[in-house]
Backbone:
């Protein structure tokens, strides 16, 4: 019986930049940060209020992962375009979080707008992914 | 009643002030001055936006920082208690245990053990499906 999602991977173009965004800017917590002898870095994070959801930040363009050029090239196209839509980030107040993150230099594709499910902005992580940042309707 | 954009900016300013100065002694007067609002309005708006009172937010910020430093730095528990802004080691330890389930020293020991294992045996902390799928074994 499956009861929970324990890991959900994010592909990123650069793990150092991803660390800066998710940990230093968004406030995610580091769960594990260890590098294998072949250069593969196992970097996992968790949202501030979800310590049991572990998110590996995987860098297919960097050392230690895929060895074939075709796969790397495919990932490069998607990550360079910022084409990977990773999910929905919950915020208790979309407009406040938007103001704060804009002041910190985060790039948004869309400013907060009212939707039938709540207030939503579209945020980019700068390393290949975009998210909906949503304050659900009460 | 909706919150005006300039008011959001004021609340965010105070929140960022707490983020940068959590180690200092901060009271409601200081924060409301930072936000250029009355104490009552600042407290009410902050709590509405962030779903916790300024005091709760500040305490959480301090405990989070303490957790990082316990895992990462050679400071004593007392030094960390003072450096994150708590005045009493007793209240710090009680709050820390309430938030994390273990006392500060126990948390530090668990973190050290985890780091030792990760550094000496990185494969022991990476799910095998990732090692297998991304061909990380030599």
Residues:
């Amino acid at each position: 019986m499956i009861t929970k999602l324990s890991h959900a991977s994010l592909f990123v173009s650069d793990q150092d930049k991803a660390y800066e965004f998710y940990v230093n800017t968004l406030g995610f917590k580091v769960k594990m940060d260890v590098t294998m002898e072949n250069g593969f870095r196992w970097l996992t994070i968790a949202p501030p209020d979800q310590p049991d959801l572990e998110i590996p930040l995987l860098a297919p363009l960097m050392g230690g992962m895929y060895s074939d050029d075709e796969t790397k090239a495919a990932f490069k196209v998607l990550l360079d375009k910022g084409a990977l839509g990773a999910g929905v980030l919950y915020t208790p107040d979309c407009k406040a979080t938007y103001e704060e993150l804009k002041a910190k230099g985060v790039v948004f594709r869309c400013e907060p707008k009212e939707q039938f499910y709540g207030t939503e902005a579209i945020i980019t992580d700068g390393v290949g992914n975009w998210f909906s940042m949503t304050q659900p309707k009460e | 009643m909706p919150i005006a954009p300039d008011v959001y900016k004021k609340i965010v300013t105070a929140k960022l002030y707490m983020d940068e100065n959590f180690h200092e002694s901060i009271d409601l007067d200081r924060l409301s001055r930072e936000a250029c609002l009355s104490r009552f309005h600042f407290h009410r708006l902050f709590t509405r936006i962030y779903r916790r009172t300024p005091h709760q937010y500040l305490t959480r910020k301090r405990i989070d920082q303490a957790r990082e430093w316990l895992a990462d730095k050679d400071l004593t528990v007392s030094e960390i208690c003072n450096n994150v802004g708590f005045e009493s080691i007793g209240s710090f330890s009680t709050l820390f245990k309430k938030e994390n389930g273990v006392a500060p020293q126990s948390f530090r020991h668990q973190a050290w053990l985890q780091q030792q294992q990760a550094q000496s045996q990185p494969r022991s902390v990476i799910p095998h499906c990732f090692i297998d799928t991304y061909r990380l074994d030599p």
The CA atoms of residues 86 and 92 of chain B lie 6 Å apart.
